[in-house]
Amino acid sequence: MQEFKNAEIDARFTMAHGFPDQYVNQGRYMMFLWNDGDHSVHLLIDEQKIELRPDHLLCTTYLHKVQIDNSRGGLKSLFFNREFYCVHTYDSEVSCNGLLFFGSNSTPVLKLDRNEANRLRTLFSVLEEEFAIADSNQEEMLRILLKRLIIRCTRMAKDQILKSNDKQSDIDLIRTFNVLVEEHFKTIKSVSEYADLMHKSPKTITNIFGKYSEDSPLQVIHKRVIMEAKRLLYYTDKTAKEIGYELGYSDPAQFSKLFKNHTGFTTTEFKNQKNRVLSGQN
Q1: Do 94 and 214 fall into the same domain?
Q2: Residue-wise pLDDT tens digits, 192-211
Q3: pTM score
């Protein structure tokens, strides 16, 4: 494991083979997890089982609870916090916010072709060299290399996650909508209110999502609410009524109906399956 720290601003950037225990569920890091091996790596992110196949790369944020079995090797990981590089502040540089991170696909998995995998191996080699050079330029060099990785992954995500890559302004609208949902999903539940924030019409937003995204704008809102509800049900002792109120629903029945419609489970049924999932049972 190689790590850069700037203690003055608490900036951290780490590269590792595997998934270091000290980074498990700290709630601080954006992460790239890349399977550069020959066998699948199995993860549990929040309550969802994910198979990370060879030459696949996964993006996660500090919102996720990650459990991982990397005993077969091949996993490479990068961790960085907001103090080292803030994807919100510097989105104009890399255009990843709302796509790689905090998008409607909360844990996007990208497939690397042979050329992209070779490029990534080269980038990791250069990173290893820069982690070993402790001079006044090290932090900026590491940040530049991280930005390069983010940009390459963003390009792949536009091709693989969105239906098309034709019109940048439309893609930026989708990213902006996703970011606003991330910021306001607990208090704003309608497409029209988000449209007002974006100075667009609800019809314009809906039409653009229909062209480029698998989900409608309303589905993006609901999926973000449900993701948070699952997390709170799974990892806290809060009641469904308390969680519904925290997520902006004063009527418990409205929240319960939304949850059942999206998951197929009542909140009680979902909470009761926690032990079965964690133990690996179906």
Answers
A1: no
A2: 999 999 999 999 999 988 88
A3: 0.65
